[in-house]
Amino acid sequence: MTTFDDRERAFEAKFARDEDMAFRVTARRNRLLGQWAAARLNLTPEETDAYAKAVVQADFEEAGDEDVIRKLLGDLLAAGVEIDDASVRRALEEKSVEARRQLMGEA
């Protein structure tokens, strides 16, 4: 029974690590997306930091990425930046890869 218990604990620990890493990648990705959008909005460094934090917060509105995409697209279009949904989604994918690379480099 001990072997089974050890395996179960190991599986639970791996699951917890994987979930933690997924959360950290998503949060980093959203911060990078906020910085990407802030550059298109010509924000100051202080405004960029605040905006990146707002994008991270926007991800807690609902499950999935639609809340972040909606925020970015709405803010960019409201500011007169010519951009479409596909461009925002492409940036989301690119920043996801970049966030994962950054976090793997830290490990």
Question: How many domains make up the 3D coordinates?
Answer: 1
Q: Quick one: overall form? A: elongated
List how many beta strands DSSP finds: 0
Distance between the termini: 34 Å
Discrete helix count:
4
What is the name of the CATH architecture? Answer: Orthogonal Bundle
CATH superfamily: Domain of unknown function DUF1476
Residue runs with pLDDT of under 50 for 5 or more positions = none
Note the run of SSEs as H and E. Answer: HHHH
Radius of gyration: 17 Å
Description:
By secondary structure, the protein is an all-alpha fold. It has a single domain (2-106), classed as Major Prion Protein (Orthogonal Bundle), CATH 1.10.790. It has helices at residues 2-40, 45-58, 66-78, 85-106. The longest helix is centred in the first third of the chain and has 39 residues, at 2-40. The chain starts with a helix and ends with a helix. The mean pLDDT is 92.
Brief descriptors of the model:
ATPase_inh_sub_z_sf; mainly alpha; ATPase_inh_sub_z; DUF1476 domain-containing protein; 107 residues
